[in-house]
Amino acid sequence: MSELLAGRRVLLVSINYAPEHTGIAPYSTRIAEHLRMCGADVDVLAGMPHYPGWRVHDDYRGRWRMVEDRGGVRVHRRRGYVPSRQTALRRAAYEVSFLAHGSLRPPAGRPDLVLSQMPALAGGVIGGRSARHHGVPHVVVVQDLMGAAAAQSGIRGGGRVASLAAGVEARILNSATLVGVVHESFVDHVTAAGVPGSRVRVVPNWTHATPPSGDRRAVRARLGWREEERVVLHSGNMGLKQGLEVLLDTARLSGRDTPRIRVVLMGDGNRRAHLARLAEELPNVDLLPPATDAEFSDVLAAADVLAVTQRSSVLDMSLPSKLTSYFTSGRPVVASVATAGGTAEEVRRSGAGIVVSPEDPEALYGAIRALSRDPARSAALGARGPAYVRERLSPQAGLGRISAMLSEALHG
C-alpha cells in the first residue's frame, strides 16, 4: 500500500509534533517521516512545541510563525495561546487561537490528502476545511475523544462544554472520508456520533521506545535507587485525568514497609507543582524531570513496577500512550484505572500487568506489595510485554495500518 502514496502531497495537521517527545507528537512525527520515506511530499501544520509542560519550549519563544525542515518534512509552526493551567475556558482559548492562526496562514499549495490528528478539535476543523476547499479526502485519526474528555477528565467547567465539544467533534468525524481510532473501545463512540461503521478503521498506536540496553544496576545507582528498594515508576504527563494523587497516598501507606517502596513520578505537566507540594512530607516519593529519548527505556527497565493511573471518571476518552513504552521495557504494569475502560482492556489483553480499582490506594498498594513478594510472577508479567509488542505494537505494523488507510482514502 505504501507505494500508492509515492508522488502524492499530504498535509498533516497536528498541534503536537517533534521535538515534543511524549503524548501524540511521536506518532505524528513518525507518520510524517514514514510518508516521506514512501515518496510522498509532506507538509505539517503544527503549534509551537509546548507539551507536556504546557509552556513553549525555549528555542521557540517569541516566534509567531515559522517553517522548519525536520527529517525531510516541512513543518509550518503557528503560535497559539498555551495555558499553564487547564480549565474548559482556557482549553477553548487554546483551540480557538490555533484555529484562527492556522486558518489564516495555512501551508500553500494543493494537497492530495489531508490527515488530521485529534484530540485537537482545531486541527480537525482546519483539516476538514482544507480538504473541502481542495476537493480531496480527509482522514482523521482519533487519539483521544474530546467530548468524552471534557466530561470525564475533571477539568474545571468541562461538564458544561462537553456537549458542545462532542457536537464539533461529531461534525468533524462525519465529514471525514475515513476515521481511524487507536483502540476498539472508541468505535462505539464514533459510530454513536453518526459515522457509519464502514468508514471506521482501528489503527492502534505502536511503541516508539527502543528496548532497554543499559546496565540496570548502573542506571539505578545513577538515579539513587537502592537495590533493596522496590521502585514504582509513573512516567508521562502529570495532568488532571491521571489522578496521580493515588500514588502519593500509596506511598504514604507503604512508608514503614521493608523492603522500602519508593514512588517515582517522572515527567511534566500542569499538576506537577501541585503534586510536588503534596509530596514534600513523603520521604519515599521522588519527582524527576522527563528522561531523554536516549535514556528513557533504560529508566523504565530500572524500575520494579510501572504504574498507569486514571481518575475513576475516565472510561473511554483516551488510551495512555505510555503503555506501548511500558510494555517494551519488560517490567510489570499495575493499572489503577476504570475496570471497564479501554486502558484496562489493553492491559488485560497484553497479559503484562494487573488492573485494580481507580483512586483506591489500598488496592494499588496491595497489588504492588504482592508483586514485590512474588518475583516469579513479576518476571512473568514483565516478559509478556515485549512479546505483546512484537505481536501487535511494532512500528512496522502500526505504520502499515496508517499507510493502508490513507491509500484506501486516496484510491478506494
From TrEMBL:
CDD domains: GT4_WbuB-like. InterPro entries: Glyco_trans_1 (IPR001296), Glyco_trans_4-like_N (IPR028098), Glycosyltransferase_grp1 (IPR050194). The keyword Transmembrane helix does not apply. One of its GO terms (biological process) is carbohydrate derivative biosynthetic process. Residues 22-206 form the Glycosyltransferase subfamily 4-like N-terminal domain. GO terms for molecular function: hexosyltransferase activity. Coiled coil: none annotated. This is Glycosyltransferase. It comes from Streptomyces sp. R41.
